[in-house]
């Protein structure tokens, strides 16, 4: 049973909106019409029966007053005429007859003989004014009225009222209502079709729009038919598609930048290898060759003075070579970062930078006294600050800059400011210009450590870079001890 109900529910819900609306409209019209027909028939039938009964009593009483004289006389002809009169003037009278006090038939309206069984029914007691009995006959339901003549002393008048004519009237009314219902149904089918067209057209439109969207067509826009709920839905769809389109463009831009960045990193690695090879070849191996030649000469030295002088030269050459190798190692990886931590490493880098390029950089740091940051965060911040300072040097024409580092334990803040010529951030960040990947690389690096970076700059007003990075305190460790806090 439950299964059947579920099946039916599924079938009903899966039909189109058009059929649903029409079904509802027709259902309402039919229900309404059936209720009206039922109500009208019920009350009409009751009223008609009552009316039939009243007129039956009236006719019977009339017959008593008009017939009593003819019975007493007696005048059979007049009685026959009376019955004929009654019969002709009342279409609802099925039969009429008068019985004597001894229950003999004095006069009757039956053409084909009097049906005897009528004598046995509806017998009125002499004291009562009338008696009504409903008889179920071949002619239909008959309302049989019996009225005693002079309290029953003269006999009884009986009149049978047939509801045939009244029922025909009732059927005619029902037919009328049915015709009206059919007309209203046709009209409601028309109205429902119109309504469903108005309702479903925007929805059908939305469906094809969403299908196109599903195939990746972000150029389409949902048509707005009216400012109703569907119109609002279409509006929301259009907003969504615009956002999706922006998101897609942004994603494609980022992908392009990432691939460029990757190329740049690979090129840079290659360049760096070449440079180191050159450096090793041109400097270190030259120095080592000089050292070898020096040692050969030392071997052939004749006096102690000459040995001392040559060995001093060789010591100087060795120390120079050592310095070169050391410089090379530092350039490859800032070992200061591993050894002394971000704060001091940046302090040294900034001092060196200021001296070399004649740009005054104010350096402030807070919260680095007792704890070191996780290594990957230190490397990222070091590289990002290097790029920011490189940009100040390359593009800003600034004379002053400021670098601020604040470690609050669970949040690291870095601010790099310059008073240079500034630039249009939005324009630069949205343009795909080859080779300009510093700012994008900064963002990527900061994103890698779940941080946030904001670049604020307007032409003529310098540039400010704000960075915040959440710090997992468990990964920070105490200075000098190498143990995790
Ligand atoms: N501090 C600054 N002051 C003024 N302009 C800047 C500054 N930083 C960046 N810019 C502008 O933003 C552009 C993009 O910088 P970005 O670092 O991405 O590329 P780049 O420095 O030109 O090249 P690279 O990829 O070598 O870093 C620069 O070309 C410059 O016009
Ligand atoms: Mg740059």
Automatic annotation (TrEMBL):
The chain crosses the membrane at residues 21-40, 173-199. The keyword Transmembrane applies. It is found in: Membrane. It comes from the Bacteria. Its EC number is 2.7.13.3. It is an enzyme of class 2 (transferase). Its main location: membrane. Residues 237-286 form a coiled coil. The keyword Transmembrane applies. Residues 381-473 form the Histidine kinase domain. This is histidine kinase. Keywords: ATP-binding, Coiled coil, Kinase, Membrane, Nucleotide-binding, Phosphoprotein, Transferase, Transmembrane, Transmembrane helix, Two-component regulatory system. It catalyses: ATP + protein L-histidine = ADP + protein N-phospho-L-histidine. One of its GO terms (cellular component) is membrane.
């Amino acid at each position: 049973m439950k299964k059947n109900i579920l099946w039916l529910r599924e079938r009903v819900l899966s039909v189109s909106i058009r059929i649903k609306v029409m079904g509802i409209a027709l259902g309402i019209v039919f229900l309404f019409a059936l209720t009206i027909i039922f109500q009208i028939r019920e009350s009409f039938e009751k009223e008609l029966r009552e009316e039939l009964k009243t007129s039956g009593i009236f006719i019977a009483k009339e017959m008593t007053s008009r017939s009593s004289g003819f019975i007493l006389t007696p005048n059979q002809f007049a009685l026959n005429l009376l019955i004929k009169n009654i019969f002709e003037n009342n279409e609802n009278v099925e039969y009429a007859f008068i019985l004597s006090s001894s229950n003999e038939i004095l006069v009757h309206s039956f053409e084909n003989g009097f049906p005897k069984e009528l004598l046995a029914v509806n017998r009125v007691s002499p004291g009562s004014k009338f008696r009504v009995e409903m008889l179920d006959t071949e002619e239909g339901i008959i309302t049989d009225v019996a009225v005693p003549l002079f309290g029953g002393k003269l006999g009884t008048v009986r009149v049978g009222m047939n509801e045939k004519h009244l029922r025909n009237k009732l059927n005619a009314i029902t037919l009328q209502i049915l015709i009206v219902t059919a007309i209203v149904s046709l009209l409601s089918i028309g109205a429902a079709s119109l309504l469903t067209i108005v309702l479903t057209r925007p929805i059908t439109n939305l469906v094809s729009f969403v299908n196109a969207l599903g195939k990746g067509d972000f150029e389409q826009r949902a048509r707005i038919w009216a400012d109703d709920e569907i119109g609002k839905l279409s509006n929301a769809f259009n907003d969504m598609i615009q956002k999706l389109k922006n998101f897609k463009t942004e994603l494609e831009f980022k992908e392009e930048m990432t691939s460029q960045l990757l190329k740049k990193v690979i090129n840079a690695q290659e360049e760096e290898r070449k440079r180191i090879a050159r450096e090793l070849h041109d400097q270190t191996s030259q120095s080592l060759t000089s050292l070898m030649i020096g040692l050969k000469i030392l071997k052939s030295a004749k006096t102690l003075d000459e040995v001392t002088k040559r060995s001093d030269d060789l010591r100087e050459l060795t120390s120079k070579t050592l310095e070169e190798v050391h410089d090379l190692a530092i350039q490859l990886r800032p070992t200061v970062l591993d050894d002394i931590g971000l704060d001091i490493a940046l302090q040294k880098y900034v001092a060196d930078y200021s001296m070399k390029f004649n740009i005054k950089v104010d350096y402030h740091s807070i919260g680095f006294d007792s704890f070191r940051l996780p290594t990957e965060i230190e490397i990222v911040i070091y590289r990002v600050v290097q790029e920011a300072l490189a940009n100040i040097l390359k593009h800003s024409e600034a004379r002053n800059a400021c670098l601020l580092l604040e470690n609050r334990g669970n949040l690291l803040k870095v601010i790099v400011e310059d008073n240079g010529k500034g630039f249009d951030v939005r324009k630069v960040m949205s343009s795909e210009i080859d080779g300009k990947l510093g700012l994008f690389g900064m963002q990527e690096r900061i994103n890698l450590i779940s941080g946030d970076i904001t670049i604020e700059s307007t032409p003529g007003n310098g540039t400010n870079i704000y960075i915040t990075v959440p710090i997992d305190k468990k990964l920070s460790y105490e200075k000098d001890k190498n143990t995790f806090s």
